């Protein structure tokens, strides 16, 4: 800002010198102004380059932290893989499934659930008890008649109200 204000003052001074007829001094002043403008542009470009460089450095630092984090994570995974093999994991899963099945059996026993063998034993005992209590009538030893006697017709029966009156 300070340089920009100084350049404006020199331009105004050059105009004044031209009005006063001092062309050579005005020309020298404009050359000085032009040199300072170029210097200002170079400085602005350098500042812009420095800002880009600082941003690149900051981004590179972030990338380095990410890479370091990945490296540490990779080392942790490798250590875990050394401790836990696939066979070990399969063994643990198998043991867990066995423990879950055992617990399920305990839960069923506590809840009163019966196994299929228990159900069969209970049905067999029920059949035995039923056969013991069941008394069948004796079967007649006489042969059955060849013809079934005809039932008496309904017309010959006495009417219910007559039976009740007598």
UniProtKB/TrEMBL annotation:
Residue ranges of the region described as Disordered: 133-166
Single GO cellular component term: ESCRT III complex
Top-level taxonomic group: Eukaryota
Keywords assigned by UniProt, alphabetized: Coiled coil, Endosome, Membrane, Protein transport, Transport
Key word Lyase present: no
GO biological process: late endosome to vacuole transport via multivesicular body sorting pathway; protein transport; vesicle budding from membrane
Coiled coil: 18-60
Subcellular location: Endosome membrane
InterPro entries: Snf7_fam
Family: Belongs to the SNF7 family.
Protein name (record): Charged multivesicular body protein 6
